[in-house]
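[step 3/7] inverse_fold.run input=structure_tokens len=119
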């Protein structure tokens, strides 16, 4: 007996300790589901879908017209990677298509601020 897609997502979110964490994960995962199409099953997602999502995040602009920061991109991608790792652990999925998705390198803002203030 297999779990339904929505059930696996619910179980994954329930595994998050704090309700605020689960709410954030739910919101971030919903962005991904909207990108791939809510009718597409998580088990039918392939690496190419995830790479397109990562590319979309790299090109996404904030409400202020700036590019989405690398840290935010990492979080959004890590949420998806976490879901797939959970689904594999529960044997809902045979493999994790998100393992090969590259995360953007975070900017070293602190070092940059120290350098600027030093001079």
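[step 3/7] decode complete -> sequence:
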């Amino acid at each position: 007996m297999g779990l339904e897609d929505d059930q696996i997502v619910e179980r994954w979110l329930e595994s998050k300790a704090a309700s605020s964490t689960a709410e954030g994960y739910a919101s971030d995962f919903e962005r991904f589901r909207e990108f791939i199409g809510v009718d597409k099953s998580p088990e039918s997602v392939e690496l190419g879908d995830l790479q397109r999502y990562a590319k979309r995040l790299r090109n996404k602009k904030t409400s202020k017209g700036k590019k989405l920061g690398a840290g935010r991109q990492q979080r959004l991608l890590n949420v998806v990677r976490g879901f797939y790792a959970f689904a594999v652990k529960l044997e809902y999925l045979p493999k994790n298509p998100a393992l090969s998705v590259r995360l953007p390198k975070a900017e070293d803002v602190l070092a940059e601020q120290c350098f600027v203030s030093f001079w």
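[step 4/7] annotate
Residues 5-118 form a domain with the DNA polymerase; domain 1 fold (CATH 1.10.150.130).
Residues 46 and 119 are 48 Å apart (CA to CA).
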